[in-house]
Protein backbone atom coordinates (compact mmCIF):
# COMPACT_ATOMS: atom_id res chain seq x y z
CA UNK A 1 0.00 0.00 0.00
CA UNK A 2 1.40 3.45 -0.89
CA UNK A 3 0.33 7.05 -0.44
CA UNK A 4 1.97 10.09 -2.09
CA UNK A 5 1.47 13.78 -1.47
CA UNK A 6 3.09 16.15 -3.97
CA UNK A 7 3.16 19.93 -3.71
CA UNK A 8 4.33 22.22 -6.50
CA UNK A 9 4.31 25.96 -7.06
CA UNK A 10 5.04 28.36 -9.86
CA UNK A 11 5.28 32.13 -10.22
CA UNK A 12 5.37 34.19 -13.40
CA UNK A 13 5.58 37.94 -13.89
CA UNK A 14 5.77 40.29 -16.86
CA UNK A 15 6.95 43.68 -15.66
CA UNK A 16 6.23 45.37 -18.98
CA UNK A 17 2.50 44.60 -18.77
CA UNK A 18 2.14 44.48 -15.00
CA UNK A 19 0.88 40.87 -15.10
CA UNK A 20 1.72 38.55 -12.19
CA UNK A 21 0.51 34.99 -11.54
CA UNK A 22 1.22 32.56 -8.73
CA UNK A 23 -0.10 29.00 -8.47
CA UNK A 24 -0.04 26.18 -5.90
CA UNK A 25 -0.97 22.57 -6.58
CA UNK A 26 -1.33 19.65 -4.14
CA UNK A 27 -1.66 16.17 -5.67
CA UNK A 28 -2.63 13.17 -3.52
CA UNK A 29 -2.49 9.56 -4.69
CA UNK A 30 -3.39 6.29 -2.99
CA UNK A 31 -2.36 2.99 -4.52
CA UNK A 32 -1.79 -0.74 -4.22
CA UNK A 33 1.17 -2.77 -5.52
CA UNK A 34 1.03 -6.55 -5.74
CA UNK A 35 3.96 -8.87 -6.45
CA UNK A 36 2.40 -11.23 -8.98
CA UNK A 37 5.68 -13.10 -9.39
CA UNK A 38 9.25 -12.50 -8.17
CA UNK A 39 9.90 -10.45 -11.34
CA UNK A 40 6.50 -8.90 -12.10
CA UNK A 41 4.54 -6.38 -10.07
CA UNK A 42 1.03 -5.08 -10.79
CA UNK A 43 -0.21 -1.78 -9.39
CA UNK A 44 -3.04 0.73 -9.44
CA UNK A 45 -3.42 4.32 -8.20
CA UNK A 46 -6.13 6.95 -7.73
CA UNK A 47 -5.19 10.67 -7.94
CA UNK A 48 -6.93 13.77 -6.64
CA UNK A 49 -5.82 17.40 -6.56
CA UNK A 50 -6.41 20.82 -5.07
CA UNK A 51 -5.13 23.92 -6.87
CA UNK A 52 -5.15 27.66 -6.37
CA UNK A 53 -4.20 30.22 -9.04
CA UNK A 54 -3.82 33.91 -8.19
CA UNK A 55 -3.47 36.56 -10.92
CA UNK A 56 -3.00 40.31 -10.95
CA UNK A 57 -3.21 42.70 -13.91
CA UNK A 58 -2.57 46.22 -12.71
CA UNK A 59 -5.03 46.80 -9.85
CA UNK A 60 -7.27 43.88 -10.81
CA UNK A 61 -6.82 40.70 -8.79
CA UNK A 62 -8.47 37.31 -9.31
CA UNK A 63 -8.25 33.96 -7.55
CA UNK A 64 -9.43 30.49 -8.61
CA UNK A 65 -9.64 27.35 -6.47
CA UNK A 66 -10.29 23.83 -7.79
CA UNK A 67 -10.60 20.44 -6.09
CA UNK A 68 -11.31 17.22 -8.01
CA UNK A 69 -10.05 13.75 -8.87
CA UNK A 70 -7.71 13.61 -11.86
CA UNK A 71 -6.98 10.00 -12.89
CA UNK A 72 -7.25 6.30 -12.13
CA UNK A 73 -4.43 4.21 -13.59
CA UNK A 74 -3.14 0.64 -13.62
CA UNK A 75 0.32 -0.56 -14.54
CA UNK A 76 2.95 -3.26 -14.47
CA UNK A 77 6.66 -3.43 -13.57
CA UNK A 78 8.79 -6.31 -14.90
CA UNK A 79 12.44 -7.17 -14.30
CA UNK A 80 14.06 -8.47 -17.50
CA UNK A 81 17.55 -9.08 -16.08
CA UNK A 82 19.41 -8.99 -12.77
CA UNK A 83 22.34 -6.83 -11.77
CA UNK A 84 25.16 -9.20 -12.73
CA UNK A 85 27.59 -9.19 -15.64
CA UNK A 86 25.42 -6.42 -17.11
CA UNK A 87 23.33 -3.78 -15.27
CA UNK A 88 19.82 -4.79 -14.26
CA UNK A 89 17.04 -3.91 -16.70
CA UNK A 90 13.40 -3.30 -15.78
CA UNK A 91 10.42 -2.20 -17.84
CA UNK A 92 7.20 -0.50 -16.82
CA UNK A 93 3.93 0.52 -18.44
CA UNK A 94 0.84 2.36 -17.24
CA UNK A 95 -2.53 3.22 -18.75
CA UNK A 96 -5.21 5.55 -17.39
CA UNK A 97 -8.45 3.64 -16.83
CA UNK A 98 -10.15 7.01 -16.32
CA UNK A 99 -8.82 10.50 -16.95
CA UNK A 100 -10.38 13.80 -15.89
CA UNK A 101 -8.75 16.64 -17.89
CA UNK A 102 -10.03 19.26 -15.45
CA UNK A 103 -11.01 21.51 -18.35
CA UNK A 104 -14.51 22.96 -18.53
CA UNK A 105 -16.43 21.26 -21.32
CA UNK A 106 -14.14 18.20 -21.51
CA UNK A 107 -15.51 14.75 -20.75
CA UNK A 108 -13.94 12.04 -18.62
CA UNK A 109 -12.13 9.58 -20.90
CA UNK A 110 -10.64 6.08 -20.81
CA UNK A 111 -7.19 4.91 -21.95
CA UNK A 112 -6.19 8.36 -23.17
CA UNK A 113 -2.76 8.36 -21.49
CA UNK A 114 -0.11 5.64 -21.81
CA UNK A 115 3.40 5.62 -20.30
CA UNK A 116 6.18 3.24 -21.37
CA UNK A 117 9.63 3.17 -19.82
CA UNK A 118 12.87 1.35 -19.04
CA UNK A 119 15.01 1.47 -15.91
CA UNK A 120 18.58 0.23 -15.68
CA UNK A 121 20.69 0.15 -12.51
CA UNK A 122 24.06 -0.97 -11.21
CA UNK A 123 24.77 -1.54 -7.52
CA UNK A 124 28.23 -0.42 -6.34
CA UNK A 125 27.69 -0.63 -2.60
CA UNK A 126 27.05 1.85 -1.00
CA UNK A 127 26.18 3.53 -4.34
CA UNK A 128 23.34 2.64 -6.65
CA UNK A 129 23.57 4.17 -10.13
CA UNK A 130 20.46 4.17 -12.32
CA UNK A 131 18.90 5.69 -15.43
CA UNK A 132 15.24 5.95 -16.43
CA UNK A 133 13.91 6.56 -19.94
CA UNK A 134 10.16 7.18 -20.36
CA UNK A 135 7.80 8.02 -23.22
CA UNK A 136 4.35 9.48 -22.48
CA UNK A 137 1.52 9.31 -25.01
CA UNK A 138 -1.52 11.59 -24.62
CA UNK A 139 -4.42 11.17 -27.03
CA UNK A 140 -6.67 13.99 -28.17
CA UNK A 141 -10.02 14.88 -26.60
CA UNK A 142 -12.86 17.25 -27.34
CA UNK A 143 -13.63 20.43 -25.41
CA UNK A 144 -16.99 21.55 -26.72
CA UNK A 145 -16.54 21.86 -30.48
CA UNK A 146 -12.75 22.11 -30.20
CA UNK A 147 -10.27 19.20 -30.39
CA UNK A 148 -7.33 19.49 -28.00
CA UNK A 149 -4.09 17.47 -28.35
CA UNK A 150 -1.97 17.78 -25.16
CA UNK A 151 1.19 16.60 -26.92
CA UNK A 152 3.49 13.68 -26.15
CA UNK A 153 6.72 13.77 -24.15
CA UNK A 154 9.99 11.93 -23.54
CA UNK A 155 12.28 12.07 -20.53
CA UNK A 156 15.73 10.75 -19.60
CA UNK A 157 16.86 10.73 -15.97
CA UNK A 158 20.27 9.56 -14.65
CA UNK A 159 20.21 9.22 -10.86
CA UNK A 160 22.20 7.92 -7.91
CA UNK A 161 21.38 6.65 -4.43
CA UNK A 162 23.88 6.65 -1.54
CA UNK A 163 23.22 4.43 1.48
CA UNK A 164 24.41 6.49 4.46
CA UNK A 165 23.55 3.58 6.76
CA UNK A 166 20.97 0.79 6.99
CA UNK A 167 18.19 3.33 7.67
CA UNK A 168 18.92 6.44 5.55
CA UNK A 169 19.52 6.75 1.81
CA UNK A 170 20.29 10.01 -0.02
CA UNK A 171 19.31 10.37 -3.68
CA UNK A 172 20.04 12.83 -6.47
CA UNK A 173 20.07 13.26 -10.22
CA UNK A 174 18.79 15.28 -13.14
CA UNK A 175 15.86 14.89 -15.52
CA UNK A 176 15.84 16.10 -19.12
CA UNK A 177 12.38 16.38 -20.67
CA UNK A 178 11.12 17.01 -24.20
CA UNK A 179 7.51 18.08 -24.75
CA UNK A 180 5.71 18.16 -28.06
CA UNK A 181 3.65 21.25 -28.84
CA UNK A 182 0.00 21.08 -27.71
CA UNK A 183 -2.48 21.61 -30.54
CA UNK A 184 -5.99 22.94 -30.92
CA UNK A 185 -7.80 21.72 -34.04
CA UNK A 186 -4.42 20.56 -35.43
CA UNK A 187 -2.85 24.02 -34.97
CA UNK A 188 0.19 24.30 -32.65
CA UNK A 189 -0.25 26.53 -29.62
CA UNK A 190 3.44 26.79 -28.67
CA UNK A 191 6.87 25.69 -29.82
CA UNK A 192 8.29 22.30 -28.90
CA UNK A 193 9.85 22.63 -25.44
CA UNK A 194 12.66 21.01 -23.48
CA UNK A 195 13.70 21.54 -19.87
CA UNK A 196 16.06 20.23 -17.20
CA UNK A 197 15.28 19.65 -13.53
CA UNK A 198 17.51 18.88 -10.53
CA UNK A 199 16.40 15.98 -8.31
CA UNK A 200 17.26 15.67 -4.60
CA UNK A 201 15.76 13.33 -2.04
CA UNK A 202 16.05 11.15 1.04
CA UNK A 203 14.63 7.76 1.95
CA UNK A 204 14.16 6.45 5.50
CA UNK A 205 13.42 2.90 6.61
CA UNK A 206 10.99 3.41 9.48
CA UNK A 207 10.65 -0.33 10.11
CA UNK A 208 10.76 -3.63 8.25
CA UNK A 209 7.32 -2.87 6.82
CA UNK A 210 7.23 0.94 6.49
CA UNK A 211 9.44 3.16 4.35
CA UNK A 212 9.27 6.94 3.99
CA UNK A 213 10.74 9.21 1.33
CA UNK A 214 10.94 12.93 0.59
CA UNK A 215 11.93 14.09 -2.89
CA UNK A 216 12.28 17.48 -4.55
CA UNK A 217 12.42 18.52 -8.22
CA UNK A 218 13.79 21.98 -8.99
CA UNK A 219 13.69 23.68 -12.39
CA UNK A 220 17.08 24.60 -13.84
CA UNK A 221 16.32 25.91 -17.34
CA UNK A 222 12.79 27.36 -17.10
CA UNK A 223 10.23 29.03 -14.84
CA UNK A 224 8.16 25.92 -14.12
CA UNK A 225 8.86 26.25 -10.38
CA UNK A 226 9.58 23.38 -8.02
CA UNK A 227 7.80 20.39 -6.48
CA UNK A 228 8.11 18.35 -3.29
CA UNK A 229 6.90 14.77 -2.92
CA UNK A 230 6.39 12.85 0.33
CA UNK A 231 5.48 9.16 0.20
CA UNK A 232 4.73 6.34 2.63
CA UNK A 233 4.85 2.67 1.61
CA UNK A 234 3.60 -0.19 3.79
CA UNK A 235 4.59 -3.71 2.79
CA UNK A 236 2.55 -6.80 3.65
CA UNK A 237 5.21 -9.53 3.85
CA UNK A 238 3.50 -12.92 3.54
CA UNK A 239 6.83 -14.72 3.74
CA UNK A 240 7.55 -13.27 7.17
CA UNK A 241 4.12 -14.25 8.49
CA UNK A 242 4.55 -17.75 7.05
CA UNK A 243 7.85 -18.12 8.87
CA UNK A 244 6.23 -17.12 12.17
Task: Please provide a written account of the structure.
- The structure is a single chain.
- By secondary structure, the chain is mostly beta strands.
- It has one helix at residues 238-243, and strands spanning 2-14, 19-35, 40-57, 60-81, 88-99, 113-124, 127-138, 141-143, 146-149, 153-163, 168-179, 183-184, 187-188, 193-205, 210-219, 226-234.
- A hairpin with a 2-residue loop joins strand 12 and strand 13.
Topology:
Layout: E1 2-14, E2 19-35, E3 40-57, E4 60-81, E5 88-99, E6 113-124, E7 127-138, E8 141-143, E9 146-149, E10 153-163, E11 168-179, E12 183-184, E13 187-188, E14 193-205, E15 210-219, E16 226-234, H1 238-243
Antiparallel strand pairs: 1-2, 1-16, 2-3, 3-4, 4-5, 5-6, 6-7, 7-10, 8-9, 9-12, 10-11, 11-14, 12-13, 14-15, 15-16
